[in-house]
Sequence to fold (289 residues):
Amino acid sequence: ISIERSGSFLQLNQYKLMDQIGQGSYGLVKLAYSEEDSTHYAMKILSKRKLLRKAGLMGRGPKKTTSPLDRVYREIAVLKKLDHPNVVKLVEVLDDPLEDSLYLVFELVELGEILSIPTEKPLTEERSWSIFRDAVLGLEYLHYQRIIHADIKPGNLLLAEDGGVKIADLGVCNEFFGEDAAMTNSSTVGTPAFRAPETLIPGQHIYSGKAADIWALGATLYSLVYGNVPFMANSVPAVYEKIKHEKLNFPEAPQVSNDLKDLLQKILTKDPSKRITLPLIKVLTTLSL
Ligand SMILES: COc1ccc(C(=O)/C=C\Nc2cc(OC)c(C(=O)O)cc2Cl)cc1
Fold:
């Protein structure tokens, strides 16, 4: 990779790095401009050293099979084979063995995260249905490709200018073989408030990756219309207790249709074997068109 400073920008090959547009535990995302095709991209920048160090940190107990760095290379391999309008598109990877930074170049989804919660201004029911419908199609595609996302939440849904929504951050995804992923909560665990009850059972409890993704999608839909997650508390263990035992309740305001509340009840069902599956969710969301 050719790295040079041109004025106040860092230039990586044909990409001029601009402002930071995203950040998280993974690293950060910068707006990048390619002079080659006069197009903007989202460049996710990771530090290999940081990922390796996290491996050390998380290396407690039995040696983890995949270090976070291996996981990134796995994410890259997974992303390269994906092609769907509701999943972010990886364009190229800039990985210089001598460099600490790893650059993932994605197509830019112009408007960024659909909603940051908590918010006093949730989305209208109509907007929420449309976003949910796209996320269902994206998740159906990932499950069809034998991939569990494992961190579905509003922050990982990006909004395009044409109103379309794309699922991002396959950094914690799990590939599975056969019909479903037999997950244990020792693997990556996603964001506390969006975790399904069955992922919170201590010990080597095996659970379905697909059903846990569907729960997270339901918690996401709930947060779009109400502006906050379905089970709130001021500590993570307290949130987990509520997810496992508290009855789902709907605030008086904002007013939400019975169809949507009915769908939320079916998705946020604590017993995964009784939880609604994607094919039926698709029928109900198409009916609500
Ligand atoms: C205001 O305008 C904005 C336009 C685009 C953005 C944006 O793109 C943010 C994050 N992007 C991403 C993050 C990812 O992981 C965490 C992955 C992945 O690893 O799959 C891919 C992408 Cl693209 C932000 C603001």
